[in-house]
Amino acid sequence: MKFSTEGLAKAGLDLVPPFFVEIDLDPELDDARNELVLPDSVLNFKRVLRVLPGRRVSGEAELQSNRGSRPVFAKIFYGPGARRYWQRELVGAIRLERAEITSARVVGRGATSDGGGFVVLYEVLPHAVNLSRRRQHVNAAVVVLAELHNRRLMQSDVHLDNFVLSGDQVYAVDADGIRRAHLLRQHFTNLATFLGQLPPTEDANIDATWDLYAEARGEYVTRMGSGRQLLQLTRTQRALRVRKYLQKTQRSCSEFVRRRSWRRNCLCDRNHWQRLQRFMVMPETYMGDGTPLKLGGSATVVRIEI
Fold first, then answer.
1. Would the CA dihedral through 33, 38, 41, 43 be positive or negative?
2. Would you say 10 and 32 are in contact if contact means Cβ atoms under 8 Å apart?
3. Under DSSP, is residue 46 helix (H, G, I), strand (E, B) or coil?
4. 242 φ/ψ angles, rounded to the nearest 5 degrees
5. Helices 227-248 and 206-217 meet at what angle, rounded to 10?
6. CA distance 225 to 76
7. DSSP 79
């Protein structure tokens, strides 16, 4: 199914592959012929990893052009401010490359053929897994963060899914969030924000994490901070994260679906939305076959199996 940028915006979080988008990549130099090549291409999306409604879709795709096909990780920016977000992504990628941070390489950039969006293509990292599923490698991500901070950079939207494990190497991804940061206070808060996404039980290891980070930063940072200071910052950032997450559960987003009418208010994990839609529309038909847990005047609670 073919999508325009307008179609991507209308589909929003309900965007389901496979689908394709026609794009025009920026000219490339053909070294053999010493001439510019203008590749009109098609992006066949195989898997959507993230959608920011009205702004961006990213995922795994197959790039087809007159040069053949190749797998890529694609980001398409559309809607208001698309060019600005696209440029910010490219600037972040350049900063990562110049700072010699291990990250995916940009292999193409351009615009959608309908002129409504902009595209950035990255190389595919083989067997890449987000650190949210490989927490035993968190220390390797801490070292990458230390390298960013040493070069006066930080990941402004730092979280576990902004680092991936490919082979035995941890890569920084999401160049859009790469910002300049010159102050130690910014660096320490950035690290604490990252650690705040781990379970509180991991706080017992925070002294070892600080030692690892400080060793990668040098003597000055070692003197200016401590494991105790990092623990306090981490707990503060974790509390802020919990507060934001509870607000997130009350609206439609990449993780949750909310459907509200004058009769009912439905909240559902997006991974289960397809299977639970009939229940959301007609809950009474399911509840009649369930096991009553409470038959009160103010509320009825029933356990059912779907």
1. positive
2. no
3. strand
4. -60, -45
5. 110
6. 40
7. S
